[in-house]
Structure formats: structure tokens, C-alpha cells
Specification:
2 copies of one chain form a homodimer.
Chain A (H helix, E strand, L loop, with lengths): L10 H23 L2 H7 L4 H8 L2 H25 L7 H11 L6 H9 L7 H18 L4 H20 L9 H10 L4 H7 L8
Helix pairs in contact in A: 1-2, 1-4, 1-6, 2-3, 4-5, 4-7
Chain A binds a DNA duplex (18 and 18 nucleotides) through helix 3.
Chain lengths: 201, 201
DNA sequence: GTCTATAAGACGATAGAC
DNA sequence: GTCTATCGTCTTATAGAC
């Protein structure tokens, strides 16, 4: 998303830049709510050019889901491989998941995708992404019950991010207790990377 | 949603009918994706009349969230009060939550709302609904950790419903294991009430 | 209480130049 | 590789009749 302005980039570089912007915008406004023009602006290109590169908004959304899944795959693989500390596997992967808030819109775009199960193209793609994460966890050694608990906590994290619960932190005692219970260790990370309310679209 | 056709109802009855339709349609298509006309059709009234009764689509969505929260409140209260069996409280409330799939679109509309944290009107409303459920659980005797676990599982259930994972049940071994792990007891209920792919809008 | 007609403003996608 | 201009369609909301 770092502005590219007038420079001429390779198609691949532009695609990557636009997908990054798409994650942020789809995450913030949803599949239907996000305009291809919002994404174009965020990537500093024209709206027709976004359509030119991806043909349709639908393709672009699918590419965004794929990008999110790739990032998770890489992050989880690194967490599994990192045996330098004595932190248990569940915590390492959980930490990796929360750290992905640094990829703006990742959790929210996935949540959006998970609500599009009825969509003929996005639905199967979203189910596949979810099932893929299940496989990654199982292959990493989680038993079915542990994988379920991990996913449940992940969906709760996604929800609190989408709700922007961090916005109300400090204003509502119920919210404070909820937030502190859900992010006992990762609180500062989540607060720091909470989506800002002042996004330009 | 039972068709009303040409009959003249009281404003209150119509509102209730439209809110019921709104839950189903907002749940299926999201806040932006749902058209006021879809909701009008589902409630067998004209599109301008929906706007007449609720002023704006935004108001209607807020009314749908409120309806969902009311249903949850009533269902949970009944589960807490029902001490006729020796089923533990967590299971009774959990069962009540899953049974709410019978209110079409309830879980999905809430999920949609939970992604609208940035919306100036819906965001605070959604955060309040979530915090309200937290309070209900805490007041019912759950400690903070148990309330968190309950909500996490609830968000996982919402996700699997939104994904329409039941659509793929029997076709993908990963999905089967995931589904069976997440709904060991309530499987048949969830499968039976899974949103149909052939909704008329 | 409820409808028909329509205004007013999006928004995705296409055409075609540079 | 990238842009400007624009078409066609959809969609919320209003006006006003019955």
C-alpha cells in the first residue's frame, strides 16, 4: 500500500500491492460494501485498472482470501518450527495468529468470507480455507478437541477485532473484563494494531 | 414471514413481520448486500412501505439486532430457570443457543453486526449486544474464564453456520471431522436447520 | 395502512487512448 | 502498464394517490 504514484511496476508487483489494499478494504467494509474504487485508491491506482488486472471484484476477493491463507500458513509453520523456547506449541501458534493483526484486514476479511457460504464461488473457497487451517492444526499435532478449542478462540478473536471492542476499552466495565479475559497476554498488541476509526475510505 | 398479502395489519404486527424477514435476509446477504426490496418481498409488502415504517435501512438493521438479542435473552433465561433435569447449566445454555438456529438468520445477522464495529450507529449497538450477552452469562454464574469459553464456542458455531459447512458435510473428510467435533450432540439440529441454498432472494 | 411511480445517486465494468 | 471517460444497472428514499 506504500504509494506507488506515477511509477510503472511489473504486473506482479501491482497485483501484490492491490491484494494488500484489498485485504484492508474488504476487511473494513465487507465484500459488497467495499468498492473497487476504494481499493484502487488505497493502492494508488485507478479503478478501471484494478478491474483490468483481476477481471472482477469477485476474483479480487478470492485473491485476498488466498493471500490471508498464505500468510497464516507461513506464520503457523514458523511457529511450529520455532523450538528455541520452551513455550508450548498451542501458545506459539496462538501468538502467531494474533500477530497477524499486523496484516491489516486479514482477520476481518476472513470473517467476511466465512459469512459468504452461500456464494457460489466464494463459499467453496471460504470453506476450503477453513478446512485448510483445520488440517494445519491437526498436522501440527493438535487432536480434534484441541483444534476445535483453538479455532473457537480464533473466531472469538476475529469477532472482537471486527467489533472494534478496543474502541470502547476503558469506557465500559463489561467490555474491560471481557477484553482482559480474552487477551490476558496479547492485550497490548491487539490494542496497538486495532483498526483505526479514521481510515480514509 | 408467513404471507400476509392483501390484509391490513396493525403497524405493530407489520413491524414484527418485517423484522423477522429482515433477520433472514440480513443474515443471508449482509447489511450492505441485503436490499430493502428483498426484505419487503420476504415480508410480502412493498419496498417503500418498509422504508416508511423504519425510515432507513440502518434503523431496520438495528431493530433486527435488537430482536436477535431479545430472543437470546429469553432463550437463555428459560435455560437458566429450567432445573427440571440434572443437565449442567453450561449445557442447557449451549443447547438454547444452538436451538436459536430455528430463528432464521439470527446467528448470521449477529455475525454481520459484529463485523460492523466501525459503523457509527451499528458499531456501538453491536458492541452493546455483545457486552449484554457477557453480562447475562456472568449473572447466570459463569466465571470470566467460563464465559469466555462459552462465547468462543458460540462464535465458532456462528462461523460454521455462516460458512454453510453443513453443505459440504459428507464430501470432505476434513469437514466431516471438524463438523463432528464441533457439534457432537447437536449435529442433527444444525444440519436440519442449516440455511437452505435455495432462498428466493 | 399500503401501493405505484420515480428521482437521485451510486458502482462495476467496458472502450479506447497514451 | 495505466489512465480518462462513460454506459448501464441497481438501489434507497421521496412524492403522492387510494
Amino acid at each position: 500500500m506504500a504509494d506507488a504514484k506515477t511509477s510503472r511496476l511489473s504486473s506482479e508487483q501491482r497485483r501484490a500491492q492491490i491484494v494488500e489494499a484489498a485485504l484492508a478494504v474488504f476487511g473494513a467494509k465487507g465484500y459488497v460494501g467495499a468498492r473497487t474504487d476504494d481499493i484502487a485508491r488505497a493502492a494508488s491506482v485507478s479503478q478501471p485498472y484494478v478491474v483490468r488486472l483481476f477481471e472482477t471484484k469477485e476474483n479480487l476477493f478470492v485473491a485476498a482470501i488466498q493471500e490471508a491463507l498464505d500468510r497464516i500458513t507461513v506464520g503457523f509453520a514458523a511457529a511450529v518450527a520455532d523450538t528455541t523456547s520452551d513455550v508450548p506449541l498451542e501458545h506459539r501458534i496462538g501468538h502467531a495468529y494474533i500477530e497477524l493483526v499486523q496484516v491489516r484486514g486479514l482477520h476481518q476479511t476472513l470473517s467476511q468470507a466465512f459469512l459468504l457460504g452461500a456464494h457460489p464461488v466464494i463459499g467453496p473457497c471460504a470453506r476450503n480455507a477453513f478446512a485448510r487451517v483445520w488440517s494445519i492444526l491437526r498436522d501440527a499435532g493438535f487432536d480434534a478437541a484441541a483444534a476445535k478449542d483453538f479455532l473457537a478462540e480464533g473466531m472469538l478473536i476475529n469477532t472482537l477485532i471486527g467489533l472494534r471492542l478496543a474502541d470502547d476499552y476503558g469506557n465500559d466495565p463489561r467490555v474491560d473484563e471481557l477484553f482482559d479475559t480474552c487477551f490476558p497476554a496479547e492485550k497490548m498488541t491487539v490494542l496497538a494494531f486495532a483498526p483505526r476509526a479514521d481510515e480514509p475510505w
